[in-house]
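Thanks for the sequence, V.! I ran NB-ARC domain-containing protein right away. Repeating your input here for the record:
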Amino acid sequence: MPEGWLLIFDNADHGVDLNKYIPRCNHGNILITSRDMQILPLSSLDHPFPTLPDLNEQEAIELLLKSSHEEDSHETHVDIVNALGCQALAVVTAGTYVFQHPMCQLRDYLEVFKQKHDALLRYPLKTMASYELTIMAAFRLSYDFLSPPAQALLQICSLFHHLSIPAKLFDHGGSVRLEEVWKLPGEDEEAVISMTDGLRAFMARFTNEADIKASINELARLSLASYSIDELSISFHPIVHHCAQETIVGHNLADVAMFLLSYATPGYGELSNEEYQFQRKLLPHAHHLCDQEASLPAVYICHKVASIFFSRR
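Predicted structure:
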């Protein structure tokens, strides 16, 4: 075999064993692209795998203008690319949609995306290879490879704010005590039972803390989430967050998400500094759920969520 060869593995995802395809020699070059962190051991110490970041803000704006065939930059373009997380496929889809819909200008796209994001995630881009590429299809390549517990965790996380979701939210689900929920006057026992049944169905996928950690690791390994060891929290790219919401069918997880949030809330009255700091971390997630008009079917939840907004030390 000549020494000047290049072997390319593009989108080497989903646990494909590449070793059997790699020539046994000490020369040549191999280029691998993948979302699967398990291939990292294949890299050499001299040539480690680089992580490809999203576009920066200016690059994303330039791509947006190019794909929409517009020339003049506008302050709303910054809002658009930031809402899309500067993700290249999402930015090109936005520009192409505007170019192909004369009644929709770039300054209108953000509002259109908020109203019709489910359709825009599936908006097809024609490629040179004669197939249609959509944001949702690209997301599905990784989502469909997840285990059922990891899919469930991704779905429930998609109902919170996409940044800094405390892993502690999922520590208590298996130990929910109905008597704690029913103790408030005026509680609707039937609504509470229905809600906790949904919670237990979700938590049945996680028998212990190790199962939660395994699912978080699985999401991170496929580049669907990032985990902060310092904050003990999970974060998602906004486009992954939107796509994950679109996979929720047949049942309403919003009540379960609201219950997890309220059950993790330290409580009422005076809080220790540690409790107060944790409760403040829950505030963007309470805002996000309330903005989505998630229901508050139990008096217990109403009180607990209210305490997030009015907590004090």
